[in-house]
Amino acid sequence: MVLFTTRIPNLVSKLGTSKDLIIELKGLANDIFEKYFLACVFGQQEHGEDHYSIVKDIGSKIVEKLKCSPLAAKTIGRLLRGNLSEDYSRSVLQSKEWEKQKDDHDIMPALKLSYEFLPLHLQQCFNYCALFPEDYAFGKDELIHLWIGHEILLASGQNKRAEDIGCGYLDELLMLGFFNKVQRGEEDRYVIHDLLRELALAIASNGCLSICYSNVRSVEVHPSVRHLSIVMRGNADHGGGMTDEYFIRELKRLKKRLKVENLETLLLFDNGSLKGSFGYLFKEVSSLRVLHVSEMTYPVYRVLENFSKLIHLRYLRIGAWPSWRTQFKLPSTVSRFYHLRILDLNEWYHDRDLPSSISNLVNLHYFVVNDENLHSEISMVGKLQLLRVLNKFQVKRRQEGFNLKELESLMEVTKLGIYNLENVVNKEEADVANLTLKNHLLKLTLHWDKKSKSDDPVVERDILESLKPHSNLKELSIIGHKGYTFPEWLGSELSVRGLESLHLEGVEWLDFTTLEQLNLQSLKISDCSFLSLLPIPWTPTLCDVGIRNTSSIQKLDYERTFSYKGRMTITGTSGLSLDEVLAFDNLTELKELIIQYCLPLAELHLRKLNSLKRLSLYDLDVDLLPSSNGLDAVKWQLPVEQLELGNCFVSEKNLTRLL
C-alpha cells in the first residue's frame, strides 16, 4: 500500500485514484481549535482576567479567519502573546491581509501577517534559512554561524557577543512558531514548516531565490537577486522526469536573467549530480559573502572557477565525502580570505592538510571540523585572536608556532583543549597561557600523555597550579596529570565555584577530598590507580556520575543525606564488589545505572532502586545473589523500562527475575 498526501487537490486526479479511496482531512473542531488558539496565546504564563477577556473576545473573531489550521493558530497566537493589549489585538484582526484569503483552506494570509509583524532582523534571519532545502534540520550552532556570516548579529552597542544575540533570535523565532524543535539522536534540531518556507521565499523573492527540480521551469528570476540556492538532491522523479542534464540546461537558461556578479550568497546542495561543466554558471562570481557547497564530487575550482578570487567571503562551508578514486586538497587560497569569520569543514572527508598560512585568517570566529586533530595543525594560532573554539592545541608539536605563548592572545575562546602538557618545563612557561584572564572560557581540557613519566611531581603540581582558569569555567577535564595533589584553585582556594562538570582521568592524586566543595552536575573519574576513598559531592544538582577502572576503590563516601536522582556508571575490575562500595539507601531515586566488570549484585540492594528506569549490565556474570532476610519469597519485579545486557552470563532463572 502506498499512502500519498498533498495539499493540492488537482494532483489527486492525476494519480487516477478512485474517489472512494480519497480522504479529505478536516481541521480541528471549532471549540477544540479555539482552546488550542488561546493556549498558543497564553501558554504557561500568568495573565490577568482583563487580558484574557480582551483576547478571548477579539480572538474568537480572529479564530474564524484561521481556517482551523494548527499552524496558523500557532503563529498568530504566539504573535499575540508578545503583546496582550487590546489595540494590538485589534490591529491584527483589522489587517488588510485577511482580505486576500482565496478560499476556506487558505491560511497564507495568516502566516504572512505573522511574518510581517516580525522585527526586520528576525525576518532577515528567517529568509536566509528558507534558502535551504525543505525539511532541512538545522543545528543550533549551524544557524548562529550562518547568521554571523550574513552579519546580522551586530551588537549595536550592546555588551553582548554575536553568539548570545543569535541564541536570543533563535529563541524568539522558536517561540513565535517559525521553527519547530525536533530531536535527532541526542541533539536538538530546528525545522521550518514548508508553508512558512514558501512564504518567506515569496515575500523576499526580489532578493532571495531557491531553485530545485520542481520549479526550475517556472521560477521567476529578478535581476535584483543577491541570495541564491540550488537544490539538486534527489532523482529525476522530483522534477516530473527531468534529468540532471536537462536541469543544468535550464539553469544556464536562467542565468541570462541573473546577475551572477552581484550574488552575495550561494548555496549549492548536491547529491553527486554536479558536473564538471557546472562551474561555467558561476565563473563571474566575485562578491560572495556566504558560500556553502555540499557533497562535492569535483574539486572546488571545477564547481567555482573563480574560487580563488572570493576575497569578500565571511562564511565558507564546503563538503566532500570520501572517495576511493581521488582525494581533493583543501585549496591553499582559503588562507587569503582575510574577512572569513566561519570556516566549516565538518563535512570535509578528503585530504586533511591545512594551508600553512591558515593563521592569516585573523577575523576567524569558528573553524568547524569533524576531527579535532585539524585544530592541532594550526601553526601560530595566536594570530587568530577572535577564535571561539580550539579543541586541540599540542604543546611544542613542532619547533615553531606551538609554544604555550600562542594561547596568550586568545581572549575570546570559549572552548579550549591543551594537549602534550608533559612538554612544559616549568610553571613560568605555563603562566604565559594566561588562562585566568580568559573570562569567556567555559570548557577546558588539560591533557598530559598518560604514557609519559614525570621526573618531579612537585614541578607537575606547580604547572597545573599555573594553569588556573577564570572563575567562569563550567566544564573541566584533567587527564594524565602526574602530580600527587590537586591544585589549590580546585581545593582550599577554590576559584571555579560555578563548575558544573568535572572529568578526571589517569591522575595520580592521593587525596580527592576537594570534591566535597563542588556543586557539580556531572562527575566522571577513570583510571585513577591511587583512588581508594571517593567523597562524591552528592548535591541535588548532581545528575551524572561515572566511575571507571578504579581498581583500588574501597568506598564511595556519602556525606549528604538527600537521594541521588540521576545516572551512575560504574566500570570496575573483576574484584570490585558494589555491595561494599555503594550506599544503596541513598540511591532510591536513581534513574539509570550502568555496570561493567564488577562482581554480581545482591538482589537485596537492587530492590532498593525502586525509581530505576534503565539498567545496563556489561561484561559480568548476572547472578542475583539471594538475600538472607526472607525477601526471596516476596514477589518482586524490577521497575526498569529499558534493560541492556552485553557480553554477560545469565541463567534462565536470573533473566526471568530481571524481566
UniProtKB/TrEMBL annotation:
Residue intervals of the Disease resistance protein winged helix domain: 131-200
| Record Gene3D superfamilies | Helical domain of apoptotic protease-activating factors, Ribonuclease Inhibitor, Winged helix-like DNA-binding domain superfamily/Winged helix DNA-binding domain
> R13L1/DRL21-like LRR repeat region domain: from which residue to which, for each copy?
404-528
Q: GO biological process: any one?
A: defense response to other organism
Q: Which UniProt keywords apply?
A: Plant defense
The record's annotation in InterPro entries points to: Apaf_helical, Disease_R_plants, LRR_dom_sf, LRR_R13L1-DRL21, P-loop_NTPase, WH-like_DNA-bd_sf, WHD_DRP
Give the top-rank taxon of the lineage listed in the UniProt record for this protein: Eukaryota
The answer to whether keyword Oxidoreductase applies is no
Q: What is this protein called?
A: NB-ARC domain-containing protein
Organism annotation? Eragrostis curvula
